[in-house]
Amino acid sequence: MTVSTPKPFLARVSDALPDLHPSERKLAELVLDFPGEMAGYTATEIAELANVSNATVSRFVRRIGYGSFDEARRAVRDEQQAGTALLRMSADTPQSGGAVARHLMASQQNLELTYGGLDDTVIDYLAEAMIAAPRVWFVGFRAGQSFAQYLGWQCSQVLPLVTVLPRAGETLAESFASLDARDVVFLVALRRKPKLTQAVAEATKQAGAALAVLADGPTPDLAGADWHLTSATSTTAPLMNHVSSMAVCNLIGARIIELSGAAGRARMAAIEESHRRFDEL
């Protein structure tokens, strides 16, 4: 049986907009400008912000398909947790002063949480598996693509066969047809990850290859991975704080280079010689 996915909060508001009463429309426009308000305020506070009545708030949430204001607020909070940037915007979000300090504090907290969950043995085991694999695949979508690209680039200094996906002009199927049981796939599964993420994990396990996952939240759909690494990305700003995601990628890349031994040094020497030959740097 197919289970339908609930329509997102903002989509409900937008769909209902043409048919709303003027006072409800006034509330809807506030919500569309700063939808995160729904998560942090009571119905009375929302009514005061929009200069409408409590009854209007009640009618509005029923119009968009929720049984109560609390149900609508829980839906917004769930979508905030899932990584929807717009839902973290607030009318009270400071626009100037202190932004640097707040970002630094969030970054420090995320780094502490992330490093507190890392283990030397696990990192080195993963690094050694990548070094031993015929090919290492780095896969990431949306924000995860940048980290897959970064780690793949760094590891290519010592690993002879590295593939970063998705590649321009290719389907995943065309690339993954070459996946071998001896390979390692490093999958970056950051919020909000597309459905293809799970498909990549399933294809990896079906091929018998090893799977490492870097995620910033619970991933029960990726429970079959051989390595689970978590980067904390909490924030009060519109964008998720990915400082710790880069830190984990940097750590893994550094350990791969450090543990690659004579073969890694020989490849790095060959790259340097090519730099001189091409006069690129």
Task: Briefly say what this structure is.
The chain is an alpha/beta fold. 54% of the residues lie in helices and 9% in strands. Helix 2 (22-33) crosses helix 5 (54-63).
Which properties best describe this structure?
single chain; 281 residues; alpha/beta; Arc Repressor Mutant, subunit A; Rossmann fold; 2 domains; five-stranded parallel sheet; 54% helix
Order of helices and strands: HHHHHHHHEHEHEHEEHH
How much of the residues is beta strand, in percent?
A: 5-15%
Number of strands: 5
* Relative helix content: 40-55%
In CATH, what is the class of the largest domain?
A: Alpha Beta
Q: Under CATH, the topology of the largest domain is which? A: Rossmann fold
C-alpha termini separation? 58 Å
Structural class: alpha/beta
Radius of gyration: 23 Å
Your description of this structure?
The chain has 281 residues and is an alpha/beta fold. Helices cover 54% and strands 9% of the residues. It folds into two domains: 9-88, Winged helix-like DNA-binding domain superfamily/Winged helix DNA-binding domain (Arc Repressor Mutant, subunit A, Orthogonal Bundle), CATH 1.10.10.10; 106-278, Rossmann fold. The chain has helices at 9-16, 22-33, 37-40, 43-50, 54-63, 69-82, 99-116, 120-132, 143-155, 172-176, 196-207, 243-259, 261-278, and strands at 136-140, 162-165, 184-189, 210-215, 227-230. The longest helix is centred in the middle third of the chain and has 18 residues, at 99-116.
Topology:
Elements: H1 9-16, H2 22-33, H3 37-40, H4 43-50, H5 54-63, H6 69-82, H7 99-116, H8 120-132, E1 136-140, H9 143-155, E2 162-165, H10 172-176, E3 184-189, H11 196-207, E4 210-215, E5 227-230, H12 243-259, H13 261-278
Parallel strand pairs: 1-2, 1-3, 3-4, 4-5
